[in-house]
Amino acid sequence: MRIPTFPDVLRANNTLRRYLAPTPLRSALGVFIKHENVQPTGAFKVRGGLNLLAGLKAQGIVGYSTGNHAQSLAYAAAIFDVPCVIVMPVNPNPTKANAVRSLGAELVEAGANFDEARQHAVDLAKERGLRLVSAADEPDIIAGVATAYLELFQQQPDIDTVIVPAGSGSGAAAACLVAAAVAPTCEIIAVQSAQSPAAHDSWRAEEIVDRPNKTVAEGLATGSGFELPQHILRRHLTDFVLVDDAAIRHAQWVMLRDAQTLAESAGAAPLAAYLAEPDRFRDKKVALVCTGANASEAEIRDTVYRG
Ligand SMILES: *Cc1c(COP(=O)(O)O)cnc(C)c1O
C-alpha cells in the first residue's frame, strides 16, 4: 500500500478548497477546539471522501460504515456523479442512515456490527464490480483528512499537543503526517474508547489485533486495527490513551454546556482524555479535534438528561 506523503496533503488541500471552507479553530475550556462538526455532513470525514473521489475513475463505489464515512462517500459521490452503495450494520443511527439516503446513495443494512458490515461490502463489491472503499486503508482518504491538520497548524502554529479521537486511526495518522512535516515538536495523542480498544491495542502491540467492540461512540467503534493508519501511527504517534464511554458522555455534556457545541460521542472523546489528566496538560497549548456532530436524537436526550 502507498504511504501518503506531505506533498499529497498539499495537493489534497488544493483540491478540497474548491469544495470546502476551512473550519474554525475556537478557544474554549482552556483549549483550542477544531470544529470539524460544522462541515457539510457534520464530520471531518467529508475531506477524505471528496479527495478520494476527485481522483478516482470507477463504475461505482461501495463503502461500509457506522455512519460518517458513509455520509462522506455519499456526499462526494453525489458531487462527482458516481453511483454509491453503503453497507451499514442493521439498525443504524437513524440520523446517519437518513442522511445517506437523502444524498442519493443506496443503503444496505447488513451485519450486527461494523466488522460484519465490512464483510458484506467486500462481497457486494465482487458481485457488482464496484470499487470497495476501505474506511482507512486508503492513502487519498488520509491525505484528504490531513488537510484539517494543515489548517489547524496554520491557524495556531505553536500548539504543543493535539488530541485526536481514533476508530480506524485515519484521523490520528493524518495528524501525524502533518505534524511531522510542519510541527515536529507537537505531540499527537490518539484516544479511543476502553469499550472498543482495537486501534489502541494494535498500536501498543505493534501488530494488528482484534478486540471486543462495544462502545456507544460510533466513530470509535472498530473491532480491529487498520494497516495503513497503524503503519503511520507506529512511526509518529506520541501516545494513545483510552477513556470510558461514561467519561465520553460526560465530556459530550461539557462541550454542550461550556463550549456551545453539539458533538457526537466520538467528537467529545478528546475532551474526555483532556479532562482525565489535568496535570499532564497544565501549561500546555492543547488542541482538541471535535470530529463530528451527528448524534442521534436519543443520544442527545440521554446526554442532556444525564448532565
Ligand atoms: C470516524 C470518526 C472518528 C474516528 O476517526 P478514524 O479516522 O476512523 O480514526 C472520530 N470521530 C468521528 C465523529 C468520526 O466520524
From TrEMBL:
It comes from the Bacteria. GO terms for biological process: isoleucine biosynthetic process; L-serine catabolic process; L-threonine catabolic process. Residues 20-292 form the Tryptophan synthase beta chain-like PALP domain. Its EC number is 4.3.1.19. Its cofactor is pyridoxal 5'-phosphate. Transmembrane segments: none annotated. Keywords: Lyase, Pyridoxal phosphate. InterPro entries: Ser/Thr_Dehydratase, TrpB-like_PALP, TrpB-like_PALP_sf. It catalyses: L-threonine = 2-oxobutanoate + NH4(+). One of its GO terms (molecular function) is threonine deaminase activity. Belongs to the serine/threonine dehydratase family. Catalyzes the anaerobic formation of alpha-ketobutyrate and ammonia from threonine in a two-step reaction. The first step involved a dehydration of threonine and a production of enamine intermediates (aminocrotonate), which tautomerizes to its imine form (iminobutyrate). Both intermediates are unstable and short-lived. The second step is the nonenzymatic hydrolysis of the enamine/imine intermediates to form 2-ketobutyrate and free ammonia. In the low water environment of the cell, the second step is accelerated by RidA. This is threonine ammonia-lyase. It comes from Kutzneria buriramensis. The lineage of its organism: Bacteria, Bacillati, Actinomycetota, Actinomycetes, Pseudonocardiales.
